[in-house]
Amino acid sequence: MNGLFGPVFAFLVGACVGSFLNVCITRWPHDLSIVTPRSRCPKCEQPIAWYDNLPIVSWPVLRGKCRHCGEPISVMYPLVETAVALWWLSEYLVFGPTLTMLRVAAFGTLLLGIAVTDARHYLIPDGFTVSGLVWLFATALLASMLGDTRFFATPYEAIIGACAGAGAITIIGWLGEVALKKEAMGFGDATLMAVVGMGLGAGRALLTIFVGALLGALTFLLVVYPIIWLRSRRTGTAFEAPLVPFGVFLAPAAMLTLLWGHQVVSWYFETIMGR
Known about the structure:
Layout: H1 2-27, H2 58-61, H3 76-95, H4 99-121, H5 126-146, H6 155-180, H7 187-200, H8 202-235, H9 247-272
Helix pairs in contact: 1-3, 1-4, 3-4, 4-5, 4-9, 5-7, 6-7, 6-8, 7-8, 7-9, 8-9
């Protein structure tokens, strides 16, 4: 029983964090408070009772519908809660009850919230980025004092990384705007890269941009382009490439770079540069 307590606790905490993340995803894009009012149905605006607001459990119990008005409840809610719960469980199993586990789990949760919000609303709210900057720098200071800076940047590297990440994506966006004669990068991408740089440092922040661009290109070529092409052929309409927010790809790229970026950089300098 004692051996199960830690994993079960991590899963339950993750589920609760995922439930709170849903609140941030749905409210921050509309500049609404995440504290008040209490959770309510977006259709009939009836307050949701605590027993109808249990993470993961309530959605299938209610069969995906509001108890009051019977309108469908988005499947996003249980999916996000389940994903975050499993993510926190996996990090506990890998790192145990450590500060590193908490930092990696929280960073992944933050990136998931950013990716989902950017995909839904084509924007990255300041609530995510400001809280991310504060959390990452505070935990960098704590980790430095404890001598446990695995995966993440030191406080000095974090400051340099935030400037480098935001600066690099801003320059890329400006160059794209010059070339395309229209806005190529939103301000949210710059603030996201400031967060990524704060967590990873300058070198891996730049690597994140490259990995994000690679993920975006592969997704478009292997998934989006074939679907749009087949649809245009079937309907006889003109082919038109959709606008895909870059944050959707930068977020997973940041997590991949956090966990394996050092190995990639080392391989590059040893194999390609011969150092």
